[in-house]
Amino acid sequence: MLQTKLYSFFRQKCTVTDVIRHDGRFSKIYRCKDSRKQDYAIKTLKKQFDGYNVGLRKQNMMMELQNGVPENNLNCVRLITGFVVSGLWCYLMEYYPMNLQQAFVENKRSFHIDHVQILSRQLVSAVTILRNNNIIHSDIKPSHILLNSSQTRLKLCGFDQATYLQHSNLLPNTGTVNYRAPELILGYPAGYGIDVWSTALVMYEMATSRKLFPGFYNNNILYQQLCSLGAIPMEMLMESKFRNAHFKGTAFMKIIGSKERILINEIEFNERLNGTLFQVYTADWGKERDVANKREDKKKLRAFLELLQNMLVMHPRCRIPIEFVFANPFIYESLDDC
Asked: Which residues in the chain are classed under CATH 3.30.200.20?
């Protein structure tokens, strides 16, 4: 049925060759090949309530997103067309051979800071296009970032939870826990800033090949955020719907196991963000770089760290907007001036 639909679109034989991803929360992704050996990806949405209208809205959103943007400047995955097969929405998209998560495993070390800069520029460009179209992605993470075979070209994908700001219903389980902003966990009013937060964490992961906030539960992730980035302003805490799940008064309530709660009045601050960047650089790249190159690399690392610190501010109102990230020298200009 799917191959028949593809034939009607391409007017040539098109074969579904394998499943790229079968365990997606909202969809399955297949790889297909036309008679000229050109690869494509096909994403099929899983059955859900009001599935037809949901699929149509996603297609219209993706088409609007890429409207008027030259293909070479589009750092979001390109949607070619959408159609319905057996009641399920299918999207025909450009194919990329790997995602960033797979690249981490394949490379077995961090990206060099020059490479981080190249990929970060493209990722920030993609998120800026979303912001210009009033869209929140809400689930930016390494497995939702596609790479070409040389790992120099990046495309943001995984738009299953993407929504226009005016239609958004952002909850504590929105997105993926390791990349979840504190305002989502606490139930504080959230918006475009959640994409700035997750973008920063992906950029950090490129430079270190490790998560800044590993773990599985909101409480543990929030505690790590406090330890690495500092306290939550009182105004934000008081206006958060779910503060009582994590705080008793101003004391953090650390959950151990299923029942035990430990009250922590003073959070012990660590230097994980700062320290890990330079430690990993030294371990992965220090032996390959001469003195002059190391000096330039560390200059870039300092500029990169400063940008991350501005993107990872706990209060979303004080967090740098993505337009300002795009204009930052590390992203926009030559690092000769940083």
From this structure: 2-94
